[in-house]
Amino acid sequence: MLKIKDEFLHHLLSIVVENGVKRVKEVVSQKLYLSTYPKYPRIYYAKPNGMPSIESSLTSYGDNVPIYYETFFTKYKGKQDIDITQISGYEEYKDYMIKSEHISFYFKATTGQHIEKQIEGISEYKIQDIAQSLIQRYMYISGDEDYNQERFNNIYQSFENCIYTDKLPLEIHVPILFTHFNFEEYKLNDRISVVKMDDDFQKSRINKTYYPIQIPSTVLESATHAFVMKGLEFRNASYYMINKVFSKPQSYAQFEINTFINTLRVATNINTGYAQLLAKPVLWAPSYEADLMPLLGTTIKNYPSHFDVDYWAYPTYPQVTLKEMEKVQEVFNKLVTTEDKKIHLASRRLHQCYMREDEADSILDATIAMEALMTDGEHGELTHKLALRMAALLKLSTEVNMDTIEVFKAVKQIYAYRSSVVHGSTKASSKREIKLPSGEPIPTLELAIKLIQSSIQVLIDNPKYLNAKKIDEELLLQDER
After folding, report:
1. In whole angstroms, what is the distance from residue 295 CA to residue 53 CA?
2. Which of 29, 76, 436, 478 has the greatest number of CB atoms lying within 10 Å of its CB?
3. Which DSSP string corresponds to 431-453?
4. Residue 174, helix vs strand vs coil
5. What's the CA gap between 393 and 465, in Å, rounded?
6. Torsion on CA atoms 475, 476, 480, 481, rounded to nearest 10
7. For residue 207, what is the DSSP state?
8. Nearest in space to 317 (alpha carbons), one of 356, 363, 274, 271
9. Checking DSSP bridges between strand 319-320 and strand 180-181, what pairing results, if any?
């Protein structure tokens, strides 16, 4: 339902856009060659592993690639097909934009943003850009169909909401790398879900990157589902703050995001991560790109380093089932609501275990996580006590196929490896693997991570044991009775 706040601006832009659309159609009919939209994404599914391929090359070809209408408004060798200032109704629209105190303040340019053409707060460049972008958006959506006022109203409403709404509603979407899910959507709680991304969303997200952070396209495209948070708001102080804010990873709910990624690892033993943070405006848009969704976003390298090598070419990837999601849901909601600092510290260190490129750093993170979970700030020699407590606690786990003595010995070996790493021992390499009771070797770091994951699960289900002395009293001493 249309809810116009500035009737006069709506009226003025309606005239400019309708006349601009007529002029664009005239140019289209006269041109022999029409440029296509550069870097327009194309999605297809040909990989045996089920991940999409999303191409976005500088030159775009194909029947579904739209005309690049922006070139009509751009000067080339001193000429341009359409001068927006000559479109009927433009001068009245421009005069209103200059005189509106709210609009002038909201679009007030800062250094480097066309400040040389500043007109009482809003730049002449921006006044032209707004009119052109609405005309172009209309053309991308409607093509050569007859002008439709309702279609313009929908485009205008999103633009107006952006400039007149104090708190802009939005959703956060985080594509989950190299992981399949056998469902379309799963609600973790009232505002957080895991949702399958449709092709329109996939195409709209692929170019939302941050140049200094280079992510291989083969990694960026390799996601079918996203972690989604709804019901969020952004304080709308200035137009030029929007892209600036959402180019920064700290603007996103990284506690919930990282907790979810860690939960997947803890509950399913899947190694995953993310490379992109996206904000999806709800009924507003600061700008448009062709007919794509008006997403905001940035890139971030928050996944294991081996993903960059050839992981994209693997024939299969792990799949999370509905039954596994029930466990993920249970653990996730407990993790995001717990106020226990030990769990949060252990979760952060567990996350770092996966992110580090150097195994020596990862084993240090792993032992810090163990100490966070199994000690209460005690001093002195902790290894023996920690190994006893972890062995006793993991009797409650259904995930660890080792008896108490075996867990105790494994923890001791993990700490022996850590000690070798810390002291630069030449024997460190010989401690990189531990022999399981079956005789099969397992990387020491991998076993450490598994024990931490299982410990977190047990402690989430039995929070009284977050007090390490309770492990001593109820699990260790119980064995001696």
Report:
1. 20
2. 436
3. GSEEE-TTS-EEEHHHHHHHHHH
4. strand
5. 8
6. -30
7. T
8. 271
9. parallel
